[in-house]
Amino acid sequence: MAYGEVMIVVDEQDDLFYTRAALQAHRPGEGRITVQPTPASGSPAALAHDMLYALGKRLAPGPNSPDVRLDSVNAAWLAAADWGVATGVRHVVVPRAHLLTIRRINQLLAWRSLTGAQLTLLWHKAPRELPAVLDRVRCVRDPGQFASVVTEPGPTPVRPCFPSAPTGATGPTPTMPGLSPVRPGYAQSVSRVPRPGHMCAGAAATAQLAPATPANAVAPEVTAALAVLAHPLIAGALSVAAFTGGSLGSLRWTRDLDITGDICAIKTHEPGHRRCRLSAIPVWARPLLAAARAFHRLTPQAPENVFGPLLLAEARHLRAHAERLPQDAMPSPSSFLAP
Asked: What is the pTM assigned to this prediction?
């Protein structure tokens, strides 16, 4: 991996200026977040959870939580990558980086390589104690230089990020240390060819023939609850159910090409494809669908259908999250797997 976009800020004296500047730099709307590592946490996925928290996501608490799947290192870092790409994060600042283990530093570097974001690490110890994995990274000490890096306007794109459709894989496949291999970046994933028997036109082609059905109004408290869900597929699926009023079972046939490139419309299918419908995606739901599509493109050996894994292995997590939302705006959990 090339670390051209990684910078170490050396602060041997642990000056309050650097920490304060890093915290003030947290502006997700400008594509910049500050990730504060949880001190002394032994959870393998702790740093990924810190990243999700900085991205505005909240894990449901409790041992029987519907987010228990995100206790897995692989799933948690994949979710962090999905949300980082979908919301246009271009710069991540991490204070107290000298307290991170080598494994977690490697995970940060791999996350940066996967998402393309700039990474700035605050190192509050002598530079001679930097691990070997960071020996090629540029170090700075000047407070003014650090301040300019974290206060200048973030590079484009900013939130939300709607990359172009995949055009084929290029280059080596990046991996997360200790995790399963993932495909190259969001905009470089392999296109999927519909399976025989499912030749229904995609969203873009359908939009050229007829306008999309307007989205249903969704209560602000529901959109707010959906926006903080940490699992990209769950957030995307429940948002579609909310603004279309349809059954989540219809999402079992949703392909990548059933979401337009600008994420303004989604096509849902019915058995036999006689009553497939193109629906407009409201502004509040576009980052959620962008994250769901990112999940699909970055998942190794993903099936053709975007929400397929969710409606099978993860159906109980989907049902559990739905039960936590205001039910007057959501379909009955018992209808989730209905056609």
From this structure: 0.83
